[in-house]
Amino acid sequence: KTEKNEEDRKIVFEKNMLFATLDVAQRSVVLDSNHQFILIDTVGFVSKLPHSLVNAFKATLEEVTYADLLVHVVDSSYENHDFHINVTDKVLEEIGAGGKDRILAFNKIDLVDPETVVPRPGTENMFISAKEDIQIDELLDLVRTKIFSDEVSCRMMIPYTRGDITSYLCDKAEVARMEYTGEGTYLELTLKNADYQKYKEFETDEII
To answer: Nearest CA to 47 among 13, 15, 8?
Structure first.
């Protein structure tokens, strides 16, 4: 290894601010409401990371810029967790994700006096314990509210001559029921408000 690489190695393994995780994991999450999203667990962020290592993890960090919502999990039992929060905020700004909607989740709240954990203004704060299952359902409810807040549930009757719309809605919307009738394709669905505004002329009050 070169002298520079050896120096980088020392910084990674000897500095107090380390990656919390080095692996990226992702899984599909299906909620009780049948809403589904992809949850990506990124590497942790560090302070004063050498540029050579920043480039090595750049692809991983860029996942954050494509996210609809950030859940910043903080170890509230760690004495300097405020510093960790500040480091993450700085890195998010540097990669262009500072304006992303986010939830600040203070984990391990069962190990500390909740009154000693100060909420951060300007963001949603949750106080959870993954181990003890404290406020996890509430966290998922908040995630669902934020991600799917612009959805509309309705019924539509799509003429057979507009099969392109039916195909689009089946692909992009959550279709709970579909029936073929004499008038066209009947859909009971949940879709993005933008799509609803585009196709609301086909909305119907009729229930098939």
So the answer is: 15
Q: What angle do CA 158, 161, 167 make, to 5 degrees?
A: 60
- β-sheet bridge partners, residue 127: 106
Closest CA to 40 of 61, 19, 18: 61
Q: Which DSSP letter does residue 66 get?
A: G
Find all residues with CB under 8 Å of 206, minimum gap 6, and list them: 155, 157, 186
- Helices of type H across the chain: 3-14, 51-56, 58-62, 81-94, 136-147, 163-172, 193-199
Q: Report yes or no: 123 and 98 within 8 Å, Cβ to Cβ.
A: no
**Residue spans of the chain under pLDDT 70:** 1-24, 33-34, 43-60
Q: DSSP letter for 20, please.
A: S
| DSSP code string of 124-159 | EEEE-BTTTTBSHHHHHHHHHHHHSTTEEEEEEEE-
CA dihedral 87, 42, 28, 109 (to 10 degrees): -50
**What is the pLDDT at residue 16?**
38
Residue 111 phi, psi (nearest 5): -95, -5
Task: Give residue 135's pLDDT.
Answer: 95
